[in-house]
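Step 1: inspect the first sequence and its tokens.
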Amino acid sequence: MKKLMTLVLLLAVSSMSFAQKNEIKAIEKALKNSNFADAKSAVAAADALVGNMDDKMKAKFYYVKAQALYANGTGTNESIDEAISSLDKLKDLESKMGKLKYTQQANEMKSGMISSFLTKANDAFNNKNYKVASKGFEKVYSLSPKDTLYLYYAASAAVSGVDYDTALDYYVQLKNMGYNGAQMQYFAQNKETGEEESFADKSTRDFSVKAKIHNNPRDVKSASKIGEIVKNIALIYVSQGENEKALASMSDARAENPDDLGLLLSEANVHLKMGNKEKFKALMEEATKQDPNNAELLYNLGVLAAEAGNLEEAKKYYKKAIEINPNYVDAYNNLAVTILEGEASIVEEMNGLGTSSADNRKYDELKAKRAELYKEAIPYLSKALELKSSNIDAARTLMNIYSVLGETDKFKAMRTKIEEMEAVAGGN
């Protein structure tokens, strides 16, 4: 009786092994004919038997399963995720076995997948298909976790596509892993053109310098992306009404990096987004002390002062910004606007006067005061127009000023300029 039972057991094991081999052969046959639908069906059948496979057969199954689900890049996102997982299981299994029969093929398959996903993600991003781009970059990262830059790209694409939940997930992953994002960049000057050029890596740059094609090599470390990441996490929390989480995120980051100007500015932006203008101003002033030659910081302080009605303070900040950056168009524009803010009270007072001799004298005084205001604003408007020839608002303001001042030739010239701008805009 014992012999009979043993024979039955052997027959059952043989039958199970035969079924496993048949299912795997069915997957291979379907793959050979690029019939991925049948291959996927065969995978589903084989999955039910995987618990009884020996390690050698299981490794082979993981490999063909990945091929079937990936389907040369045509599989669904869920199927491709499962294909990547299957390749990881294969590599882990063979590593434990100490026999790497399919690992090399799995690595080659992964390399092909990375190249394909990267091309599609870049194309999608350039075509503003941000959802596809984000998923593609995330796939590259999942295939090569050491390349954390692609998770950062995935998060950035998600933000561009207004998919804030996905972006938040990726950014939190980056923050938790301590992602910095700072990279070394390699430059050298082209001896023939005199132009500085960047290189993909140090060895390529050094070879070109050695070949005397380039000279004056220099290495530059790009700025850390921690500030941007934490800022975006906080801003997404703000958009979700999670203000406390937003501030906690900023607080944690700044505690770890108290001297990081980028984080300081990020916290200021979060407060501005939340409507905390006083806190924003305080942080911006702190930032200005850290970086007194930052024109953008001074410009932002000017905007805040103007919004609060502190026009003289606003003008002071705008002028400082222009001293640092003489080509700061917005600073010229805003400085002119701030100067012209004083016109309203003058006109109101003029309109309230009567017809007596005293009122007439006062009217002339106010008219002269308004003219001085216009003359003070003209150089800044002219410079803004010079720096940005399409600045139609500056041109219109100048035209109106010249009209009031009675400078007919300048009025006509500006009117002609505006007509040319409008013609160009209409042609576009």
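Step 2: inspect the second sequence and its tokens, then contrast the two.
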Amino acid sequence: MKDIVILFLSGVMMFGCTIKNSSEAKLDKLHSEFHEHEIKYAKGFTIQSAENYKIITVFNPWNPPDTLSTYCVFDTNCFQETGCDFPVRLPLDRVACLASTNIAMINLLGEGRKISACSDAKLICDSALYQSYLEGSVIDLGSTHLINAEMVIDHSPDLVLKYIYGAKEAVDEKLIEAGLSVAYNLEFMESHPLGRAEWIKFVAAFFNKDELADSIFSNIENEYLKLVDLSSMHKNKPTVLDGSSYKGVWYTAGGNSYSAKLYADAGAEYYWRSDSNKGSIPVSFETIIDKQADADYWFGPSTGNREDLLKIDRRYIKLKPFREGAVYFFGKKVNPHGGLDYFESGVTRPDIILKDLVWVFHPELLDSNYDPVYLEKMK
């Protein structure tokens, strides 16, 4: 596979990129300096780069190991002639974010001012960006699930960051045909919390902030692993109920999912840990009552209000954590329209989410003054 990528790079560099005022010798040097960036946890992308050139490859998580998209990123000393399907010329001035996770990653990289358009802008949690939306300097592109292609094309951003489920969407083809660069951030398909956070390296590659992303991620990783070591020393492992009921069906995290990994790393026992699913699994409410009614804690209800939960399904009263008030909702940081920061900045900071969980399961392991960032107890 690596040999194929290198051959591809050689062809693209020969026909798709010319260094201004450079000699043939410098091109040869460019080829020889090609190297692969370190990606430790994420499985969905790779980055290869030379002096003035990067290749970013996103793999198809629904049909591995196929490639979903490949991006050719050029810096200011390089210009694209022909032969590159997805060229991205740096520096970027205007970026459209069609997923909240991208907002947080760009902000961590110090490039938030370049976000010029967002989907579901009224749900933005970042205070500065939300204010820009209110003032009209950040355009609202509508619902993430119903993007207006013409509006995006009229805005003409340098890069469109978005996600997809299962396959590329019809709107993507319209944007690409209009000459826009569409990049897929598929962090949500990673099962390891650090794998999801590591997609900041993918976003950073489009801003030439690779070294900063490496540093940011390294700090997050170190804090996360310290907490894992801390919680692993605790012999008591409380049991966890995850998810909630929707129209009579309970959707809970699969055993190979992001949430299940967080519960395990925080020192808890998750009933569905032997399940192989990376996403959620549907089970009957009766199964939940039969298998997990006596769980110590319940995480992930559809709302953090007790009375509202009972209006949704009165059978919640049969669950011990509901009766005893041991229910937690990731809704502590919320914007005026109900946008949860857990879905925005939370993905980039699994170390903080893990610390919030340790605070619930083993509060004696943390400073007595620790105040959770994302979690709040049911009201």
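Step 3: confirm your contrast with the notes below.
The chain has two domains: 2-219, 234-377. The longest strand covers residues 67-74.
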